[in-house]
Amino acid sequence: MDSTYTKPVDSAMNAVVVDLPPILAQPSAWAYRGEGNANLVVATTMAADTDVAAMGPILKRLGTHHVILRVAKSAHAAAADAPRAHSALDMAAFITHVVNPLFPPVHLPVLVPVRLPPTFLTELRDHFDTTGARPAKRANHAHIDPSQQIALLSPDYARLGDHTLCIEIKPKWLFVKDATECARPNSPPRTPSPIHTPSPVRTPSPSAGSQACRFCMHQQLKAAKDPHYAPSQLCPLDFLDSATVPDAVRALLATPHNNLRVWVDGVAVPVTSPEWSSVAVDTLCDMSSGTNDARVALTTLLTSVLSDLVPVLRTLSAHQQALDQFDPAHVHAEYLALAAQSVDPPHISLDEWRHVIDRYLARRAAVAVGTSPPAVDRFQLLAEYVLSMTLKACFDADPGFQGGQVPEGGGV
User: Fold this and answer.
1) Residues 198, 212: Cα–Cα separation, whole Å
2) Is residue 276 within a helix (H) or strand (E), and if so which, with residue range?
3) Region (Disordered) spans which residues (predicted)?
4) What are the structural domains of the chain?
5) Tens-digit pLDDT profile for the chain (412 aa)?
């Protein structure tokens, strides 16, 4: 076994933690990519001719020297009783044993837990403070947590090769409760197709909202609160059929909001700028050949890539809906009943999560073959609802072109 490997740290997932290769141990080797509420993401800045062999066996396992590192954050003034942040091993275990069994392997990201040098996180934090790389709003709220010495390393899907156009979409909620189709109150008429009958543009109204998907209703709510807000024309359910993917693409390009993000060779391209589609297309010469209209070329590319992803998005939709069986009021009542039986707040261990997934998949299999599914108890109901909410926050990052070649699938 290579000397960079250590013994398993978490017996529940049998994870092996790898030391961060020395070539990546300097803060200057990383550039700020983005962050959420709990984690900050940095990407490598090494040149294309970097000696991958010198980067250790783990990077060869990832298949690219373009990688990202996900490090934990903590609030500047966290309350003494604030819940402790989940460790990288906890995250990797949850993804490996709870989320991954729900999707085809080709669409799943590779995650490798790495042990960081003792001073790495402090130096990285100081480096970003000096350069002002982080948005002020984020930097003022939380900082890199130096106590979390294990982070997650994975391929940089925004830059897998020398030339990569990466498209990230957030499909949100991909179903309508007790309905087969969304009313699409914010969208223009659909393209005629054998599957869907075009609907006229609907005027926002309470009756229309009752048949709309959650995303479309939320857009109406935003518009009602702010008269200057232009609702997104996107209906996420259009991602679920190759016949309506062109409608989804046109809506994304017309009103991207925060539902579409684009990177060209690892550099974010602001989709709100008028020339962004030209930048994206012109950077990849093979894509723009034969047309002078960058938006037409990009529309064609996005339609092709997203059409290939219809099966996995349908899988995501099916799990979202199957896991979300009851309305929030019912779920809240069940939670209070379960909490009343326990001295401590309900907590789900990894082993319990694995049993939840096993029972859920067994129930799905029973329904598929027409047999009676097992009953769902209170604990299972609540756990499935939590998992459903997690899946509603999924995004799909698809490296649309790598040197002119369309890859297989994307990463959920």
Assistant:
1) 15
2) helix 276-283
3) 183-205
4) 18-76+83-156 (3.30.200.110), 169-311 (no CATH), 315-391 (no CATH)
5) 333 333 333 333 456 888 998 888 888 889 999 898 889 999 998 765 666 666 777 777 787 888 999 999 987 655 444 445 568 888 888 888 999 999 988 888 888 999 999 999 999 999 998 989 999 989 888 999 999 999 999 999 888 776 777 888 888 888 887 666 787 788 777 654 433 333 333 333 334 434 788 888 889 999 999 989 989 999 999 999 999 999 999 888 888 888 888 887 788 877 766 656 556 655 544 444 445 566 677 788 889 888 999 999 999 999 998 998 877 788 888 888 887 877 666 678 889 999 999 999 999 999 889 998 888 888 898 899 999 988 887 765 555 544 433 333 344 4
Collapsing DSSP to helix, strand or coil, 149 comes out as coil
Return the DSSP state at 211.
T
Residue that the structure tokens 């007790």 belong to: 178
CA–CA dist 386, 202 (Å, integer):
33
| Strand, helix or coil for residue 73 | strand
Q: CA-based angle 384:113:412, to the nearest 5?
A: 45
Take residue 222 and report the two structure tokens written for it: 């935003």
The residue type at 269? V
Determine the residue type at 181. E
User: At 315, is the secondary structure helix, strand, or coil?
Assistant: helix
Give residue 178's region: left, alpha or beta (phi > 0; psi -120 to 50): left
- pTM score over 0.70: yes
Measured distance CA(295)–CA(409) in Å, rounded: 23
